[in-house]
Every structure is written in structure tokens, then in C-alpha cells.
Amino acid sequence: MAKEHEPMEKTETVSEEAPRIAIVGSGPSGCYTAQFLRKRWPDAEIVIFDRLDTPYGLIRYGVAPDHLGTKAIAKQFERLFARDGVQFIGGVDIGRDIPIADLRADFDVVVLATGLWADRTVDGFHRLDGSATHEGVYGSGELTRMINGHPDRKSGSIRVGRRSIIVGNGNVAIDLVRLLLTPPAGLAALGVPDDAIAAVSSGPVDHIDVVGRSNVAYAKFDSAMVRELGKLPDVRFTSDIEALDQDSEKASSIAGLVDASPASATREVRFHFGWTPSHLDGPRHVERAVFRDTAGRRNQLVLEADSVCTAVGFTEAVDDVLLRSTLECEATDLSRGLLGNGVYCVGWFRRGPVGTIPANRSDARTVADAIIADIEAGQRSNAVAQS
């Protein structure tokens, strides 16, 4: 979709009852919000801004490329721009290219739907400034955006190698296992760029350790996604769950994966539960990762590694100009998505990095309802004052 850079001017043809709405961020939260507001105000001018030239954010660059059903959600959003009269303006970084105050002056409502895309750091593996203590440490967001062909990817500096450690036991960690073990031809068939394929397949990967802080019963992955790993060819799965509580569905899914995997496979994935990151070893590039027992019952775990991939969630980028904390005021009511002075927030920007795309749809409805209620209450007040 071509970006547009024409200056925004108020349109006289829009009725007084229909507000002018700016949405910053074209991911699921922003697009769902536009859908709900368009349904209420068919004549409203709705503009979605994004710092990238193309829309759809998380769906385009954050979802694993082999999750085609999830990526297909973008099809319904295409109608926003093709039929529903919502305007997309890409290549504009709100806060830098256009101050938020200027956007607020030009629109009746501003909705921030920029998400949280920076990888959370791991104590012991990262310094206080967020940088890794060793080369070869990558965040899951960094890797997933690279695999999805994000224009800002730095694939030239990423090499996964033969042995990789994935820190985290959520669905993103499972995604990384699957993608790192997908052969180059399979990645190419999914549309992964050549430079990303080279970075992921540089080893190629033949051993992955997946290390989680919690007991297997409290791991955050979905059991169905674990069972899906059994479709990977030539992979032996092992685990240390025999030392922990196995009385859970998630433990059963891991045990079933282990029992069904071929002992003669040339590649291995080993799951470790109940280990907290301690530190990394190596003169410059990571060579080993050291973990301590979360419960304090076992000796430390030392794993060899060519790379470490952290999959422990997301947070605000420290240098982002649109930080929620700087926009809050006495009028802020995050339960409704209100930041104040006609500015609202939705999705992860509002509630933190939790919840899937369906959760963001529900969130968008909540905030859209709040916007509609506030605008219409203001219109009623104006009507009374003028009568």
C-alpha cells in the first residue's frame, strides 16, 4: 500500500456529529478500533498513521510466517482502506515527524495503538542499559521481525549457529523452536527473505535447549503448540520434567512429545524447567549460559551455546518518544483507555504486553465504546448549552 504524505486539513464536508479521528499504529488494535468507530460514524474522517510504509504491524511482522490463519486476519483490515474510507498514511513517525500536540490540534480524537515491540531483557544476560553482555544474544522480537522481512532488520549481524538456547517457555519460544528447525527451502516457501534464511540457517541448528524459569505445570505455552512440534522431521525431544511435578496437562504434552520422538534423530530439542538465568560465559561471543535452580534444589545448569534467544516478553523502547507514562495526567482513566485531552490508548500500549489478537479486538471495542460515549456526551452538553 502506497504511503501518503499530503498535509492534513480539516474537511468541511464532514458533519458536525462526526469527529475527525487519528489512530497512531496500524496493527490489530488500531485497525479494530477503526472498524468499531467507522461502524458508529460512517461519515467520520478516520486516518491511521504508521511509521512504516506498510500497515498491519504485529500481523505482518510479529506473527510466525507459518501461522497463515492468523496472518489472514489482515484481509479483513484491507476493506478498511479499500471500501470503508479509512485513510492510511505510512512513513510518518508520530512524535518525531509530527508532534503529538499538533496531531491533537488537527483531530478531535487521537488514539495511540503503537503496541510494545522492544524485547524485555534478562538479568545476568543483559546490562542495565539493555545491551547484551555477550555477542550472539538476540531477542525473540528481533528474530521474528527479521524472519518476517521487517524493513529495519539487521540480519547481517545475526548468526544462530548449531547450538542455540531459547530462554522462556511461552508460545513465542515454541514458535522459535519450530522456525529454527525449518529447513531453508521451507522458510523460502513461506516468503522468508534470503538474508533472514542465511542468519537462521547459518549452523544449521542441530541442538536447541529451551529453558524456563517456572515448573512445567506453570509454563505459558499452549499444549497444542507443543504437540505441533511433533510434526518436525528428524528431531528427538528430551526433557528434565522427570525431576519435577508431572501432574498437569502441560507436563503430559511434553512427555508425549518426548515419547513419540525418534531416538535415532540427528537433531535434538531439550526442555528444561525450573531454571533461572544467572550469567553468560565467553571472552566476547557467548559460549555457555549458566542457570541456577529456581527452587534451590539442584546444582547449576551449564549449557553450551552458539547463540541465546530470549523470549520473555516485550516492553517499551527506552528511546520511544511516545511513552504512556509521559502522556498520563489527572484525567487519565486507563480502564477506559483515556489518557486525557482527547487522547486515548488501546491494545498493549494501554494494558501492557499481554493477550493475543482476539484480546486486542476486545480491547479495541472497550476503548471505541469509551470514545463514542465521550464524544456523544460532549455533543449533548453543547446542544444543551446552545438551546
What's the structural blueprint in terms of helices and strands?
Elements: E1 20-24, H1 28-40, E2 45-49, H2 57-61, H3 68-71, H4 74-82, E3 87-89, H5 100-106, E4 109-112, E5 118-119, E6 137-139, H6 140-147, E7 163-167, H7 171-180, H8 184-189, H9 194-200, E8 207-212, H10 223-228, E9 235-239, H11 249-260, E10 267-273, E11 275-281, E12 288-293, E13 301-304, E14 307-310, E15 314-315, H12 324-327, E16 338-340, E17 343-345, H13 348-351, H14 357-386
Parallel strand pairs: 1-2, 1-4, 2-3, 4-17, 6-14, 7-8, 7-14, 8-10, 9-10
Antiparallel strand pairs: 5-15, 11-12, 12-13, 16-17
Helix pairs in contact: 1-14
Notable characteristics:
single chain, 387 residues, alpha/beta, six-stranded mixed β-sheet, six-stranded parallel β-sheet, 17 strands, 32% helix
Structure overview:
By secondary structure, the protein is an alpha/beta fold. The chain is about 30% helix and about 20% strand. A 6-stranded mixed beta sheet has the order 3-2-1-4-17-16, with helices on both faces. A hairpin with a 7-residue loop joins β12 and β13. α1 packs parallel to α14.
Q: Estimate the strand proportion.
A: 15-25%
- Distance N to C terminus: 46 Å
Poorly predicted segments: 1-15
Percent helix range: 25-40%
In short:
With 387 residues, the chain is of the alpha/beta class. It is 32% helix and 19% strand. The chain has a 6-stranded mixed sheet, sandwiched between helices. A 6-stranded parallel sheet has the order 6-14-7-8-10-9.
